[in-house]
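Quick one, T. Sequence first:
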Amino acid sequence: MRVLGISGSLRRDSHNTRLLRAAAFELPPGAELELYEQLAAVEPYSEDHDGDSSPPGATALRTAITRADALLIATPEYNSSIPGQLKNALDWASRPYATNALRAKPAAVIGASSGIFGAVWAQAEVRKVLGAIGAQVLEDEVPVGQAHGAFAADGSLADPRLRELLAGTVANLVDAARPAEVVEAA
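Structure tokens:
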């Protein structure tokens, strides 16, 4: 089971990239997290370049999403909303609408911020966009506030309550991505 992790932050020492790495610790057995590290390479969306002539960054993103069984997005909050590059990537992934890479794909959104609220508004906005695209969006929320002090030395979340919340979210995501007959047998 492959979970594709996308951090909405382009910053080298991103709290949200750290949060995805912490999520990898919490994945159930048999699941692995692949961190998508090419978000900055996704070109600005233009319908003029959509379809067969999509640019390489957008094509690579769509391919990575298609290959994954589920999607885990960690988003910061910029001006009370979604970072522009993350929204741009979701716009590319949403095309062509009827057969896009996110159609019926299980997806969860988590977030970290240096403030106390843990990017809850941005998480809600990303879930809304994913739902409009046609993803199978989990309503789970993992708000990691004051992220500069939220991680233990090993990279996991220091707060046991947050670690449990993250573990529950990734377990729900993996369950959502399992074929129905496997879930019924469990």
